[in-house]
Amino acid sequence: MKLGLIPILFLTAALSACSSVAVKPWQRGILARADMQLDAHPIQSQFDDHIYFSKEAASGGRGFGGGGCGCN
Amino acid sequence: MQLIEQRPENRRRLHLAMATLGLLGLAAERPAAADDGTKNWTFDSGLLYYKEGGGRVQAIEPVVNAAIDLGNDRTLTAGFVIDSLSGATPNGAAPAAAPQTFAQPSGKGKTYTIAPGATPLDHTFEDTRFAVDLGYLFPLSSNGHLGVGLSGSKEYDFTSVGANTHYTLDLNQKNTTLSAGAAFEYDSSDPVGGIPLPLTMMVNAVKAGGSSKSKNVKDILLGVTQVLGPRGLLQFNYSLSLSNGYETDPYKILSVVDSNAVPQYYVYEKRPDTRVKNALFAEYKRFVFDRDVVDFSYRYFTDSWGVRAHTADLSYRWNFAQRKSLEPSVRFYTQTAADFYHAALFTGQDATVDNASADPRLGAFNAWTGGLRYGQVLANGHELSVRVEYYKQFGKVAGVPQQAATALSQFNLAPDLSAINVSFGYRFNW
Q1: A10-61 pLDDT, tens per residue?
Q2: How far from chain centre, in Å, is Cα B51?
Q3: Under a CB-based contact definition with an 8 Å cutoff, are residues B85 and B58 in contact?
Q4: Per the CB < 8 Å rule, is B61 touching A47?
Q5: Among B134, B312, B354, B364, which is least packed, fewest CB within 10 Å?
Q6: Cβ-Cβ contacts under 8 Å, B299 against chain A
Q7: CA-atom Rg of chain A in angstroms
Q8: Burial (Cβ within 10 Å: 0-12, 13-18, ≥19) of residue B188
Q9: Cα-atom radius of gyration of chain B, to the nearest Å?
Q10: Domains of chain B from N-terminus onward
Q11: Contact B7 A49 (CB under 8 A)
């Protein structure tokens, strides 16, 4: 039950944070920062995916969810 | 063997992320030196060292990803991974009061013996995997980009080839980006000692199921990324994965026990030959205090095997100096057991069940990860990073046969698992 609330709270918080959604090209300085990319550390994300796919049943979401080896 | 899964999907995900961000006008991953017109190559390299507690699996994994800017918004990418694993992994049998002896997967008459009360681990686990991928990203229109890719991997007992494509479309002055992707993969499993007949008794490692089995995997990914003001970003994704074919782990077995929890014999596991996976994913990222970055993501996962999982991930990047950062992170994960997960089977039950597996990865557990990353941009513009993480699974007992529940309760049927990993990253333009 509690976990089910997480996405709702998350969405509410996120949407309430955006008073002005439309960003003009000259306002993109912060969004263009390397540390503001959705996947700021691709190599380490790749390692994480590897570890968690090896050890857990769930996969996908951030990217494609299937395929791989005969292991899971 | 079981754990060799630096899957092509990881590479595809990266390419898709790159494409999405590029269209959002956000892909400022290159240091400023890239603008001088001569440094068209970007190399992103890393090294992972992973080690589980209790003498279980350890892995060393070097990775190199290269991208070349061909001009006119076109990018060619290539990646290469080597993954070397060794150690001990659970074979699926339950602990017992007397020593247990198992045949090694090779079927050459070699055996290993497990002490009373201990979780049966197969110590012969060892493999090296090589994986490559290629990708090409190019504009289809002023607002749309198409990416195509190929991937392949080879390890001792497993071969995988795949192709993928994805399309991204910018809307609303690049404040909204829609993405859609599809992938196909063909996997071939050629296990050591051959394919066992599922749910048959393990006798001297005789395996009459042939030498090779395959499966197909089809993936679809739909996403939307929304800019939320000059300091925030939100992404939603839905992924669907349809897998058909040989899903069983040829090395896993189950104990068949009597009411005193004494193993009568062991059978090879069997999983359904289809699996449908669904995942909903959301990520929110925000620049705070004019200096730092908060990143939160959540995923809900469910599949046709009865597994449901929640994953929540939170990180805080503290840019404590202009070119230096510290990033603590925490991740929580929980999953329910698959419908056909059994800690053990009761005598005769192996003849009545359609599917059965005692693989702990299909059992129920919670897991926590805590990590700390240090990143620095050097004077020459190169970026280096080091990250340390600690991971721990807390097993939850599930799938215990009622007739043997009391006797089995003396054993730890869902042991915890801990692991530490250290990774290094180095990125530069050339």
Answers
A1: 555 555 444 446 898 888 899 999 999 998 999 999 899 889 998 999 999 9
A2: 16
A3: yes
A4: yes
A5: B354
A6: 58, 61-62
A7: 17
A8: middle
A9: 24
A10: 37-429 (2.40.160.40)
A11: yes
* pLDDT in the model for residue A8: 56
pLDDT tens-digit series, residues B228-262? 999 999 999 999 999 999 999 999 999 999 999 99
Record the pTM: 0.87
- Rounded mean pLDDT of B293-304? 98
Four-residue CA torsion sign, B357, B360, B364, B369:
negative
Residue B106 has pLDDT above 80, yes or no: no
The helices-and-strands tally (H runs, E runs) of chain A is: 2, 0
A15/B228 Cβ within 8 A: yes
3-state secondary structure chain B: CCCCCCCHHHHHHHHHHHHHHHHCCCCCCCCHHHHHCCCCEEEEEEEEEEEECCCECEEEEEEEEEEEEEECCEEEEEEEEEEEEEEEEECCCCCCCCCEEEECCCCCCCEEEECCCCCCEEEEEEEEEEEEEEEEEEECCCCEEEEEEEEEEEECCEEEEEEEEEEEEEECCCCEEEEEEEEEEEEEECCCCCCCCCCCECCCCCCCCCCCEEEEEEEEEEEEEEECCCCEEEEEEEEEEEEEECCCCCCCEEEEECCCCCEEEEEECECCCEEEEEEEEEEEEEEECCCEEEEEEEEEEEECCCCEEEEEEEEEEEEEECCEEEEEEEEEEEECCCCCECCCEECCHHHCCCCEECCHHHCEEEEEEEEEEEEEECCCCCEEEEEEEEEEEEEECCCCCHHHHHHHCCCCCCCCEEEEEEEEEEEEEC
Helix axes of B8-23 and A42-55: crossing angle, nearest 10 degrees? 140
On average, the pLDDT of chain B sits at 89
Of the residues B1, B2, B6, B195, the best mutation for testing chain A's interface (the one with the most A CB atoms within 10 Å of its CB) is: B6
Interface of B with A in 236-275 (CB under 8 A): 237, 239-243, 246-250, 275
* Interchain contact A67–B (C-beta under 8 A): yes
